Each structure stands twice: as C-alpha cells, then as structure tokens.
Amino acid sequence: MADRIERVEVLVASPTRNYVTLRVTTADGIVGLGDATVNGRELSVASYLRDHVAPLLIGVDPNRIEDTWQYLYRGVYWRRGPVTMAAIGAVDMALWDILGKRTNQPVYQLLGGRVRDGIPYYSHAFGWDIPALLDSVREHQERGETFIRVQSGVPGLDKVYGVSKDPNYEPAGRGARPSEEHFDPGAYMRHLPKVLTAVRELVGPDVKLLHDAHHRLTPIQGARLAKSVEEFDLFWLEDVTPAEDQDAFRLVRNASTTPLAVGEVFNTIWDCQRLIEERLIDYVRTAVVHAGGISHSRKIFALAEVHGVKAGPHGPSDVSPIALAASIHMAAATHNWGVQEYMGYPALVHEAFPHAWSASDGMLQPGDAPGLGVDIDEDILSTSPYVPAYLPTARTLDGAVLDW
Ligand code: GCO
Ligand code: MG
Q: Does the predicted model carry a pTM greater than 0.90?
C-alpha cells in the first residue's frame, strides 16, 4: 500500500471566476485534487503551495494524511490564516481523494459511512425590492428547495450584500481594485422585518428561512436585529456582527432566541473554540477549504457536536466544486450537520470540474465515485487564464471603512 508523491501541480484558472486547484500525482499514478481558492487572494495561495509546500511533499507517502497535516501546520512554525490554511486544506483534500481512489471507495465511506439519505442545502434568493425577492423565492420553491436564504435591496442604498443585477449572485468584480459601496445599518435594520413579513406570508411556516447580515453590524445592533426578527422563526441569522469578537455573541445571545450561524472567515478550531464551548452560536460555518481540509474540519465539527452546535458550512460559488465535494462527503458522514450552503455554479464551472456529486430537490448527494469524485477539464482550465477580481469594500455613509 505504501506509495510516494511524485508530482505536485498548482493550476490557476478563471472559468467565469478564479479557482486555484492542486493536483497531486503519486508514483502509482493515482491523482488527487484539492481546492485552494481564497477569493481575491488566489495568487498568494498558489505561490504558497507552489513555492513552499510542493517541494516538501515530493517523496512523502500519501497515506500519511494526518501526519502530513501536522507537518504542514506544526512543522512550519508560521501557522493559521486563510492562505496557509487553504493551502493545507487543498493538500488534505487531495490526499483523501487519493486514499479513496486507492481503496476504490468514496471519501464519505472512509469517514465512517452515511448517516443520512441526502444532504439538505440552502440556496440564495434575492431581489432589489420585495416583489422581486418574492419572485426569486418562488423560483427556488419550484426547484423543490425548502431551505432558502433571503437577501433584499434596502431603500436608499444602491448596492447591498447578497443582491445583484445578474441572475447569479457574484460578489467579486473583475478589475485591479475593489469597487466600493455604502451601507446604512439603520436603513437596513428598519427594512429587514418588512422583508421577512412578506416572505413568511408567501411561504408559510414550514420553509426554513435564513438571512446573512454579513458582518455589518455592531454587537448591540446585532442583538437588536436578532430580537426584531424573532417572530419570523429564522432557521438562522448569519454573521450578525464581525466574528473575531467572539464575546460579542454573548450580547446577541442574551437578547434573543434567533439561531445564530458564524464562521465562514474562520480558519482553525481555535477561532471558534469559545463560540462553541460557551454555546454562543448554533451553527459553525467553517468552509472545508479555508479551515485546513477534511482532517481539521472533522475536529471542529466534533467539538461542535459535544456542545450541541451543528455544522452549516460555507459553500459559495467562489470555492470550486472540489471543495464542495469535500463538504458533501463530510456531510454524508457527520451526524451534527445542519445544512450545507450551495450557491450553485454557472454551467462552465460544472464543465471545468466534472463531478459525481449532484443537487436536486433541495438535496445534495455525494455520488459513489471513488475519492471525492471530481475531475478537471484541462482544456477549459488552460484556456481560461487568471483575471484579477476582488470583493467590494464597504463604507458607512460618512465614508469610514466598514466590514464587508
Ligand atoms: C456566503 C458568503 C459569501 C461571501 C463570499 C466571500 O454566505 O455565501 O457570505 O457571499 O461573501 O464567499 O468570498
Ligand atoms: Mg455568509
């Protein structure tokens, strides 16, 4: 069974948007894929992998998944942060993929096998005004989706997180500098209850509604918002205040029983330890790619399980179908899974990364292909070069920078 890593390649490509893919090939000819995409910082992870990680992997036994993780994390001294952890995450995914292919089993089987028949996902409905949002919600319902995140424009603001003029919500704009947008917390906080009143009236009590405040509010504003939307019975309120200030969540928690979800910007178990151990949140949202891959994410979700917190991982279109596959395989085998985010991809992304996983009627399925079950179309990737693209920057109405 021993084998050794012979080749490590980093592919950066932009089939509609930028993705960083790691391809690891062993002496036995097994190929493992990992996603290392950090939206707007793609080239840093590519360099980290190419210049600093790839040389360390040559000759390593790919079966030593946990040891390789520890070597790249503890053995390197400089640790944590999105670039480092996405790079380690990509290596980890690729090694699980290789193990699955070597043993001819899907990764979820290696993680202990299925604990559920399908993985519910939530999708993203949006509209500039309430009627447009309601149309979007109806479309999601027609697709059989029962977990729907609702985002709407705010009167007086010309750009708002989660709402776009395109049919696909795409926050990163192409160009050398981020665009800028202004945000007014007061206008937003006054408007959201009206939005949720209309949506709840449309969908009735059974549909699970979610909403993302995207780190824009202060702790006390977050507490007030969570309280003001309590009657709409949200499945969760996401990122109601910036996540670094873990203690701030106590204020929100004490103010309301609206379930809270946080953590898409976290990279390690230590970033969310307090939130989980002190039961300040209900769902932890670390993305498999940005939190060190499958091996480390398992530990985060195991800690969460002990404290009654569920996984609700980030699954935006700015991580590739390889990372989504890793998340789906974990979801199939992890008991305390709440819901998986699935923003969907444009057709070209599905073609660039042919995959065994599938999404229909509000459920994701991992498929039964060995490993993670994702491939790459090299023709598409090699003809879609990297294009600089950035998330916008937000400012308050007086021009001061605000968390985006
Ligand atoms: C989500 C997120 C995204 C992020 C994006 C950043 O919940 O899907 O908040 O929309 O903004 O992934 O790269
Ligand atoms: Mg979010």
A: yes
